[in-house]
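Supplementary Methods S3. Input chains for the assembly prediction are listed below.
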Amino acid sequence: MNAFAPVTPGTVPVLPDSAPFTAEQRAYLNGFLAGLFSRAPDNATPVAPALPAEDFPWHDPALELDERLALAAGRAPARRMMAAMAQLDCGQCGYLCQTYAEALAEGRETSTGLCVPGAKPTQKALKALLAEAPVVAPAAPVAVAKPAHPVARLLESQRLTGAGSDKDVRRIVLDLSGTGLAYEPGDSLGVEAANDPALVDAVMAALAAPDALRDSLARERDIARPLDRTLDLLAGAAKNPKEAAMLRAMADGEDVGPDAPDLLDLLENFPSARPPVEDLIASLPALKPRLYSIASSPLAAPGRVELCVGVVRDERRGRMRHGVASNHLAFRADAVPTYVQTSHFRLPTRAETPIIMIGPGTGIAPFRALLQHRAGLAQTSPAWLFFGDRRSATDFLYREEIEAHLAAGSLSRLSLAWSRDGRAKDYVQHRMLEAAPDLWRWLQDGAHVYVCGDASRMAKDVDAALRQVAQQQGAMSADAARDWIVALARQGRYQRDVY
Ligand SMILES: Cc1cc2nc3c(=O)[nH]c(=O)nc-3n(C[C@H](O)[C@H](O)[C@H](O)COP(=O)(O)OP(=O)(O)OC[C@H]3O[C@@H](n4cnc5c(N)ncnc54)[C@H](O)[C@@H]3O)c2cc1C
Ligand SMILES: NC(=O)c1ccc[n+]([C@@H]2O[C@H](COP(=O)([O-])OP(=O)(O)OC[C@H]3O[C@@H](n4cnc5c(N)ncnc54)[C@H](OP(=O)(O)O)[C@@H]3O)[C@@H](O)[C@H]2O)c1
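Predicted structure tokens for the full assembly:
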């Protein structure tokens, strides 16, 4: 039986009510058809997706947590837990949103705090969902077993931000020769980093740990984000009842604010809590690889890969904290185990399709790769870059290269936004809204939109700006603009790599 209603030229077909699909499957397919039949030159030979056995309507990072949870109401606990995740499939937890939720629901994973972009609100929601549907027989923590990744040699760590910038963003160059690794622009590089040796020393001293355990603390375990099971273990071992009660409250989810303690904070603040060292180390989460958007094209950097890394530093509880991988790459690395994570982030298949790239801050990384690639292929079809950062004088990353692309035609239009040059915040989405008629025309011409960078604020605001452009220029209601952007994404014309 043909499930689709007959199509009159120029109309968008919809599924008849009699078609054998659930309401969610029907909504998914109708959305897909709406996208398919809207104007999209790069869409000449679309490939229909396989009918999903199950739809995840909450799997959209632009939705708020409560909207996502509402969309999953009535579903199985694993699905409601999935809805609590940030929906970025960023891999920072070591899973995808769906598989992390399933691991929690089945008791294969016991930590509710692994969703980095979802942060505390996600953790709270997960704890509440687990309390509603407790796991019957939680599995024992799984031992750390790391796959062996080929080792790339660090060739360069060069500061890109100028003197006087309050950010340290670096061009990191790695030699891939002998690794067997190959990549395409749009891919990310997975990097296995080691903990800061000074922090490892301090933890070793606080634990009076034997030297034999150093490597585990340095390379295998995350010593920055202790898990509930570590807090449980410390609470059980604490000889001082006050310390035990405080640790128990933290393990039970008491809000410790944004300044969550790391392992060293716990050892210093709770000196009576000393479980056997091996048990304590085994309770820590595995140190996860970090992903970086590749910032080079193999056409421009054969045998090498370049990254654009923001060095993460902040002060908490009176001590300077250093992000593990960004500091490792910037200051300590020599040989780095790496792997290539292939991505959906790809240039359009038809070279003449216009592209719109939105990437403030380190979000510029994949666009440097795309621009290098276009230059290598002598592509001069329309390409528009929106870049922004704090100050034009010190934070215009890759300025000379971008200006050279503009002169050569591999980039045709550049819109810049400096957030701290003037009194008012100036962001990329302000440039987008100012240029709304042109942006809309590019979109009508079939442009593909790419967004990369900060997920928590920028990507949401850019998404809202795109919808606003559609409402203003396309005379759409808010609901219609939402359907339009969903259809754009389903056609592969709205791709985001946000973290
Ligand atoms: C697909 C993808 C692409 C990416 N591309 C890039 C890129 O091109 N460039 C780039 O710079 N980054 C990129 N990232 C981000 C990158 O993967 C890392 O997340 C980033 O570099 C920070 O890692 P880190 O190990 O240095 O910091 P981490 O050690 O992971 O620390 C990160 C932050 O968490 C805080 N933190 C640590 N412990 C705690 C705690 N107990 N409580 C509260 N806060 C804590 C730290 O202080 C710090 O602010 C990308 C991420 C993804 C998923
Ligand atoms: N701890 C550190 O030392 C440190 C330093 C840099 C970045 N980071 C983290 O690293 C990640 C990526 O850093 P990054 O260099 O790519 O970006 P970033 O430094 O966070 O921001 C890049 C630019 O985007 C602007 N911006 C802020 N909010 C925005 C919004 N809602 N919409 C559009 N633009 C916005 C910033 O302006 P304003 O900042 O002026 O508002 C800045 O001009 C972020 O998650 C950030 O939290 C940490």
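Residues 1-12, 31-51 have pLDDT under 50 and may be disordered. Residues 58 and 71 are 6 Å apart (CA to CA).
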